[in-house]
Amino acid sequence: MLSLGEIAKLIGAECRGDHSITVDSVADIQKAASGQLSFLTNIQYQKYLSTTSASAVIISSRILSQISSPNTVENMLLMDNPYLGYAKAAQLFDTTPQQEPGIHPAAEISADSKIAATASIAAKVVIDSGCEIGENVTIGPGCYLGKNVVIGDNSRLWSGVNIYHNVKIGNRAILHSGVIIGSDGFGFANDSGEWLKIPQLGGVLIGDDFEIGANSTIDRGALNNTVIGNCVKLDNLVHIAHNVEIGDATAMAATTGVAGGTVIGKGCTLAGRVSVIGHLEICDNVHLTVSTLLTKSISEPGIYSSGDIAQTNKEWKRKTARMRQLDDLFNNVRFLEKELKIIKQEKEE
After folding, report:
1. Which of 136, 150, 185, 299 has the least C-beta neighbours within 10 A?
2. Mean pLDDT, rounded, for 297-313
3. pLDDT digits (tens, 9 = 90+) for 9-54
4. Looking at 104, 242, 279, 287, which residue is catalytic?
5. Distance between CA atoms of residues 182 and 283, nearest Å
6. Helix, strand, coil abundance in the chain, percent, nearest 5
7. Across-strand partners of 133?
8. Is 242 in the active site?
9. What string of H, E and C letters represents the secondary structure of 182-226?
10. How far, in Å, are 261, 267, 268, 286 from residue 301 at the CA level?
């Protein structure tokens, strides 16, 4: 439990109202109760300021100045970015269970692996030879670490994570259940109608402050390593193929897939179900919207889209029918242009 004044100092906010009131958790503004801290990031939700039971709300001065409905909330934390404030406040009240340091008797640890004394290794974890596990690392039940895997300090592997050999992960990483890192990339050569497997000889290198969602995969490199920068965030069900390189602070939403050999710059965002074909180069600060299919490299920062939006079936059928007529329309326009050119020439003569 923290006072509003204490929270303001910890998250860098300006406190308005009673500095001494205490809160013990954060909650949605619609469902928050007394003793809870909420936030408002969208002016469209201003109506809930008159009905919420939250003890305090994180809000920006800009939004506050635009509010027209009655406001019953007297205690506020002012920040330019209320959503960031919510994120910082939520960390103060994080209830994620923590494992105690130590190695469970049911874990299988290779004798030559180096495990920090502050690490926590749960039951049925298997750690192969040559591994290095840093300080305050937590490895959940049923995880597997292949040969020569390195896990940096203060990282957490939830249950059922599988990391193949020669993978290095930096500090403060979070790997959710079902994640697989270092599996073989999709490499085959056709030999007279039969597929010959190409051994994937590279590894995976991942920087600090990395997080990857449940059931996502990162393939090892075919020759060189697959490389993931610092502060990269991947959602659930994301697939990163062999030899992909991802720059610092890039984020990808669920069901996005990146094919082999593609290089993605820093500070990029890929929304849900984005597909990127192989061997492309994407510069820094590129943002791909939902369901975008990227088939060529991007050298200019900006927002790119290709996915269609939902519409009534009648509208979709009409548009599809017109799309089928585009070739005929194009040919007709070219014919008319030629006829017009002839008419102009005849007039000039």
Report:
1. 299
2. 93
3. 999 999 999 999 999 999 999 999 999 999 999 888 888 888 999 9
4. 242
5. 25
6. 20, 30, 55
7. 115, 151
8. yes
9. EECCCCEEEECCEEEECCCCCCEEECCCCEECCCCEEECCCCCCE
10. 20, 10, 9, 5
